[in-house]
């Protein structure tokens, strides 16, 4: 089946999704953006058709929608996809706008896919396998810290002009539920209770929060401590999981998983394959390619997409509770 993809938003994520589709042998792409510079760049780099007005399209002109706008616009384009009964994929949100519409249209025979990128990240998949094999015994608690300096997110543009420096769509608000997707998967549970704070402590020129500190209790009894910040001058993702028979430690940029076996009183190192970031990007492309492949497989009936909007809403509600505390 030859599908035509409509990518809404041609910023950094929209361009990435074009690359993901190309890697997956999908070439029929229409790109929409109101900014002429973004349309020209997408046309020049990827040789796709671009438009500045969705009204120029009929429902027969496209089969699938990928929503890669900033989060405050997701709801409008979710409703657009539902109205046209098209399969759709949405980048990670900071609000639940559009979710009620999705649940009201569960009867539609279309794939509705929220982004869950890190479920496809090689070290996360390796950690999941280790935990499922009871290598460190029963999981009791964990610590996780994700840090990166916000002006380094998009070094090609002024961070003050980008959605992730705005309060309602801040990077911290985006990353708390984003990180919960894969942490929940590792813990094989959902957050039952969350407490802590999300606030601003730096001199970054914005009103948005720049750090979130949360204590989590999971439905299966696991406790976790999570810090998300956009003030760290050195980027890192650091995870430590305490098990009844051992400890697992992972620092993303060391490309190693460390295991301590309490029975043998010994440690071991597992190397993690390095991915390949696109020039100018920090994150490896492979997991994004795999994510879109999973979306395509769901459309073609080959496999179930591994994450739902119902699950995503639980994570958003955890964020909302943290904001309110």
Offer a few descriptive terms:
325 residues, alpha/beta, eight-stranded mixed β-sheet, six-stranded parallel β-sheet, 8 helices, 14 strands, globular
Describe the structure in your own words.
The mean pLDDT is 96. With 325 residues, the protein is of the alpha/beta class. α1 (12-23) crosses α7 (286-299). β13 and β14 form a beta hairpin. The chain has 8 helices and 14 strands. The strands form 2 sheets. An 8-stranded mixed beta sheet has the order 8-9-10-7-11-12-13-14, with helices on one face.
Shape: globular
**Stretches where pLDDT falls below 50 for ≥5 residues?**
none
Oligomeric form: single chain
Proportion in β-strands: 15-25%
Describe this structure in a few short sentences.
The chain is globular.
Indicate the topology:
Elements: E1 5-8, H1 12-23, E2 29-32, H2 36-46, E3 49-51, E4 64-67, H3 74-83, E5 87-90, H4 99-104, E6 112-114, H5 122-132, E7 139-147, H6 171-187, E8 191-199, E9 211-218, E10 223-229, E11 236-243, E12 246-251, E13 256-261, E14 266-271, H7 286-299, H8 309-324
Parallel strand pairs: 1-2, 1-4, 2-3, 4-5, 5-6, 7-10
Antiparallel strand pairs: 7-11, 8-9, 9-10, 11-12, 12-13, 13-14
Helix pairs in contact: 1-7, 6-8
């Amino acid at each position: 089946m030859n599908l035509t993809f409509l990518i809404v938003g041609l910023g950094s994520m929209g361009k990435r999704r074009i690359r993901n589709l190309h890697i997956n042998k999908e070439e029929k792409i229409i790109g929409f953006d109101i900014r002429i510079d973004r349309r020209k760049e997408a046309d020049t780099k990827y040789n796709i058709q671009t438009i500045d007005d969705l009204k120029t399209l009929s429902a027969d002109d496209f089969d699938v929608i990928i929503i890669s706008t900033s989060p405050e616009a997701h709801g409008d384009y979710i409703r657009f996809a539902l109205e046209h009964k098209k399969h759709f994929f949405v980048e990670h949100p900071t609000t639940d706008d559009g979710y009620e519409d999705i649940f009201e249209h569960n009867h539609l025979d279309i794939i509705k896919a929220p982004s869950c990128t890190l479920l496809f990240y090689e070290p996360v998949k390796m950690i999941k396998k280790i935990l499922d094999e009871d290598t460190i015994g029963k999981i009791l608690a964990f610590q996780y810290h994700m840090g990166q300096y916000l002006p380094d997110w998009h070094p090609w543009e002024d961070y003050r002009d980008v959605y992730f420096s705005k309060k309602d769509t801040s990077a911290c608000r985006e990353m708390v539920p984003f990180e919960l997707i894969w942490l929940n998967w590792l813990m094989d549970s959902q957050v039952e209770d969350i407490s802590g704070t999300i606030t601003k402590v730096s001199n970054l020129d914005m009103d948005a929060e720049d750090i979130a500190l949360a204590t989590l209790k999971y439905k299966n009894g696991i406790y976790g401590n999570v810090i998300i910040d956009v003030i760290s001058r050195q980027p890192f993702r650091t995870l430590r999981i305490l098990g009844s028979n051992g400890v697992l430690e992972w620092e993303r940029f060391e490309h190693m998983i460390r295991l301590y076996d309490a029975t043998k009183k010994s440690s071991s190192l597992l190397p993690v394959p390095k991915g390949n970031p696109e020039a100018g990007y920090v994150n490896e492309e492979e997991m994004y390619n795999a994510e879109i492949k999973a979306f395509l497989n769901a459309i073609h009936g080959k496999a179930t997409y591994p994450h739902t909007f119902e699950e995503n809403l639980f994570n958003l509600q955890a964020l909302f509770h943290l904001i309110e505390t």
